[in-house]
Amino acid sequence: MGHVSAIRELDFRTRNLGWVNRSSVNDQAVKERVQDMLLSRLVHPNHHSEWLTRSIQCIDLTTLAGDDCPSNVARLCSKAAYPISTEVMHHLGLDLGILTTGAVCVYPARVADACLGLNRIGATIPVASVATGFPTGQTSLAVRLDEIKFAVENGAKEIDIVINRELALAQKWKELYQELVAMRKACGESHMKSILAVGELCNLTNVYKASLVAMMAGSDFIKTSTGKETVNATLPIGLVMCRAIRAYHHKTGFKVGFKPAGGIRTSKDVLQWMTLMKEELGDEYLTPHLFRIGASALLTDIERNLANQVSGDYYLAEEMPMA
Ligand SMILES: O=C[C@H](O)COP(=O)(O)O
Q: Which domain holds residue 212?
């Protein structure tokens, strides 16, 4: 059962603020679990190519710059549709066109350009839009909801909203839940990915509580960061969010996806994040309907690593096509 369609029938019966208020996180145990994972659970080098290729399908290929324009968004769309070179695809035994990124992610004003860019090359990759005053969310709720509607009307199938940090820091979980329910409604048929901006939530207990509230309000994904905070996606924070996803699934039966984002730039980073997903949530969470990686520069590094497997040469980032 899909979370989005189900939530309408639910009448929000999954809201359980008592559970939120009672929750707490043991920081030391989180640290030890992550250290153990990094020491003993990482992917064997023989499987790196396979895992890196798999990771490409989970990337939300992102551009969120003040100077974004139709031409760089069109290039992003081509890169999303053809993420690695023909030569590397051939070496991996893959047909051209079969491997794409999970989505392209842009500002609301660039959604129409992204839809056009993808249509022109016949790609059916979803367009994700950030919204609700990204990255800070510092505007009225009415304006934040209008921005969601604008992105949806322009063709965004996924909306990456930011939560109201003030409400989370003040422990106003009911008010945060109500805002998120309003955002969920504004998203309509489009998926809602809720960005917690974890680097601004002060502690891991707040990260866990905000994760629960976002899921109770109907988020399809919970996402770590905007990429604009001082602290973005870290493995301890990711572990806490994965545990919240697991607990929520056990209690309600809903599987919510996870999107680490911000500062994920290397193949080594992505292999660590994939290990976390596999260890904490299982293989099913290594697929694009439950796992996305928000990244602007990661794909180039993956491409360099895959090209190295083919030729034995190590290329500079600028030597990669459309890097
Ligand atoms: O949601 C995606 C992030 O904004 C991307 O962050 P990044 O530029 O650090 O990869």
A: 3-319
The torsion defined by the Cα of 75, 78, 79 and 81, in degrees rounded to 10, comes to 160
305: CB partners within 8 A, 6+ apart? 48, 49, 52, 267
Angle at 17 (CA atoms; ends 197, 203), nearest 5 degrees:
35
> Which of 64, 161, 301 has most ligand 1 atoms within 8 Å of CB, for mutation?
64
Domain count, the chain: 1
Q: Residue 155: how many CA atoms within 13 Å on its side-chain side? A: 19
ipTM rounded to 2 decimals: 0.96
d(CA 221, CA 211): 10
Is the distance from the beta carbon of residue 260 to the nearest atom of ligand 1 less than 6 Å?
no
CATH number, residue 139: 3.20.20.70
Confidence grade of residue 8 (pLDDT, cut at 50, 70, 90) = very low
User: Among 223, 228, 251, 255, which one carries the catalytic annotation?
Assistant: 223
Q: Which residues contact 254 (CB under 8 A, 6 or more apart)?
A: 1, 3, 6, 14, 215, 248
223 tagged catalytic: yes
Cβ–Cβ < 8 Å for 102, 288? yes
User: Which residue in the block uniquely carries the two structure tokens 């994920």?
Assistant: 264
Supply the Cα-derived Rg of the chain in whole angstroms. Answer: 19
Angle formed by the axes of helices 298-311 and 48-56, nearest 10° = 140
185 is catalytic: no
Per-residue pLDDT reduced to its tens digit, 25-59: 999 999 999 999 998 888 888 888 899 999 999 99
170-174, 286-290, 298-302, 309-313: the lowest-pLDDT one: 309-313
